[in-house]
Amino acid sequence: MLKWFNVGKIVNTHGLNGEVRVISKTDFPEERYKVGNTLYLFLPKADTPVELVVKSHRTHKNFDLLTFEGYENINVVEKFRDGILKVPQSQLTELEANEFYFHEIIGCRVILSDGEEIGKISEILTPGANDVWVVKGESGKEILIPYIEEVVKKVDIQAKTVVIEPMDGLLS
Questions:
Q1: 8: Cβ contacts below 8 Å, ≥ 6 apart
Q2: What are the contacts of 109-113 at 24+ separation with CB within 8 A?
């Protein structure tokens, strides 16, 4: 069975030339939205995805703005709103050591180096220099873990565990 991975959601149109506004959910926007790349659009009420080829990509505020070949008019992309852009597993590339896909990290249990479990990773934020992993603790409290060598000591994708050594003040 073909496995799909979410790369973004079309939230609106932008201008009159078929540009769409995407809230990105991908770790590699510059790779996923490269001109000539194929993305698959899953619309809420459609049975089969629409195959789209990226014609242009730029960023504006917190959005990725895309146009697709053959869809250069606001009237033809209006119906794309609320659609989810995905890629098949075959398009995932090999990663470098210590690089992970979001779907591999989300759901991992986070354990302190002394063995105490503090919660599960619920989402990943990409605010700037490094990613931040959001850990939901047992109490429902969110703990923000920067993905840096000083803090994240071991990631085991198979066991779905992450071992961290928090800096002073990180857990308080």
A1: 22, 23, 24, 25, 26, 29, 32, 64, 84, 85
A2: 109/160, 109/161, 109/162, 110/135, 110/143, 110/145, 110/161, 110/162, 110/164, 111/161, 111/162, 111/163, 111/164, 112/163, 112/164, 112/165, 112/166, 113/153, 113/163, 113/164, 113/165
CB 107 within 8 A of CB 121: yes
* Rounded Cα distance, 121 and 133, in Å: 6
Contact criterion met (CB below 8 Å) for 164 and 151: yes
pLDDT tens-digit map of 23-64? 888 777 888 899 999 999 999 888 889 999 999 999 988 889
Predicted model pTM? 0.58
> How would DSSP label each residue in 75-124?
HHHGGGTT-EEEEEGGGPPPPPTT---HHHHTT-EEEETTS-EEEEEEEE
Phi, psi dihedrals of residue 76, rounded to the nearest 5°: -85, -20
DSSP 166: P
